[in-house]
Amino acid sequence: MVLQKSSDLVRINARRTDVFDIFNFKHYVGPNPYLDAGALVFDFALVDSREPLPIDDYIASIGDRYPNLGSQSYESHAYLFAQVVSEVGKLDMDLHLKHWSVKPYPDFVRISVQSLHERTTREVVYFVWDWFEAITQDEDFNFEEQLVRLQNRFRASVYGGPTVYALLRTAYEKGIPAFYLWEEGLMQYGFGKKHVRGVATTFNCDSHLDSEFTTRKDDCKAFLKTLGFPVPEGDIVFSEKEALAAAREIGYPVAVKPVVGHKGIGVTADVQDSKELESAYNRALAAIPEDQVTRIIVEKSISGSDFRMLCVNGRFVAATERRPASVVGDGYLTLAELIRLENRKPARLDTPTSPMSKIQIDEAMELYLEEQRLSLDSVIEKGRTVYLRKVANLSAGGMSIDATHTVHDDNIILAQDIAQHFQLTCLGIDVITKSLSESWKSSNFAILEINAAPGVLMHLKPSEGESVDVPSHILETFFESGTDSRIPIITFNRISVEELQTTIDHILLQHPNWTIGAVCRDAVFVNRSKKVLSKNYNSNVQTLLRHPKVDLLIAEYAEDILDEEGMFYRNSNIVVLDNPTETEMMLARDVFDGSTVVIRKGNDISIRRKGLIEDYTLAEDEPFTRVYLKETGTIL
Description:
EC number: 6.3.5.5
Largest sheet: 9 strands, mixed
Number of strands: 28
Strand content: 15-25%
Radius of gyration: 30 Å
Domain ATP-grasp: 221-479
Protein name: RimK domain protein ATP-grasp
Shape: globular
GO biological process, one term: SOS response
CATH topology of the largest domain: D-amino Acid Aminotransferase, Chain A, domain 1
Keywords: ATP-binding, Ligase, Nucleotide-binding
CATH superfamily of the largest domain: ATP-grasp fold, B domain
Strand order of the largest sheet: 23-22-21-24-20-25-26-27-28
CATH class of the largest domain: Alpha Beta
């Protein structure tokens, strides 16, 4: 296919030297007339006054960066552009955004690419546009620097946190509906009465009292001690003077950390003397939120390796050893140069899918280097490993090593015994010991703290070792399959308020205890109770699917709504189409394999049900409602 240029086409966004023009952006959160997933849709055209290079010239340049694209053939510049946008849209993070489509019109082509975060995808489109124009003009294009900017854009979005994205991607792969609730700042998984909401690994079904309790490290430590579990000797202090006194009484080395904290921020291990303790105290003090009183833990520092044991729904599922950030000398480069070199590795892209973060240079690192008689300007002899921190903080560049299959049964029982005392979906237990392969009963073993909102990336993408699919363990706590996360949905292309009420009544006669959410362009109902209708149609649909009591959803999606907003959800159990337009036929596209599709064209009726097709003609004065109400029995 060759995209035709029109002399009547007005240049819209194209600059004076551009050969391509891009315009009419629209973002859909769900299935739409162009793609059966959330998508960014835009129009692509050639500028009439300029000629693009032969398509093979673009393919040759693009193939240098993406060999998989360079080995293919394309019908037109538009097809190439669409596939490049889709590939770049993965951001070298292996994001799950792989679908795209091209629909030709006389003067332009409409391109659709699967999208999660609108702003990032839009910037990807502009990025690829600039790349194509640079190829046309034979100009240099700083691809890698611009790609990092796009990665950072996605990383800063509500979907860009490693744990959030891991759960979101796993939900997508399992067919579990997942979407962000902007007003609440939460992710929702599942629909209606089946749904759960949460922030990362904390969910609405978790005990907020237990979650808050884990942040009170002093009380939590005392509780673990009453259970007979090993915890380090220590005390809580309120001033630097008290910290020095506590350290003298406990005996060096000690560990210092804020009572309230997370991600190892403000934690210093292996403090050897009063000078180090002053610095450690100030770091812990700086980590305490302004609205919290000064409370700092000083406890005995236990020698050994740092491990995270993870329980999901009270069961042990994974263990990871965490090591501080380190570099290996080559005899030529300084420590600062070695760190810069290490941070350029793909494994340290610091994205939602990379196994390691970038190594952070700060005061704590410089002080620890000073203890080793080193500085950032030191040249390290070849083969020597230099650890850059005392604490194995993964967010500051530490390494994670899978230890799941090495854990002694006694230690698994210990972790599960602790988790059973908390009404929390996920619980991270941080311990220090020589090896998890030795029983805690006979080794130098100490529980450092427990965490109510543990991250999952260290287990899913460890720096070394096998991946443990923690996101699946979490989501399977709520849903055995994608089907278990959904409520039945009946979708119409056209239904009046009266017909909607009739349908609600028909279902309630069979299930009087059900709660039915229903929406058409003119009204919103929960059972027969009329609710406030939002101007944004999909907001009404989302509100009903967010309702924790709704057993079944009925929704109307007419052509104008599909064009303007698209659908909020994927797949229906029953689709009822009354003289549908070409656009409205997409409702029959987005159905489950066993769904029922009823189509009326004039008086002709077609019913598709579980692979069978039934055709007949309505009798004179026979209402269409009679046809589709009979079909509701297939899902009731």
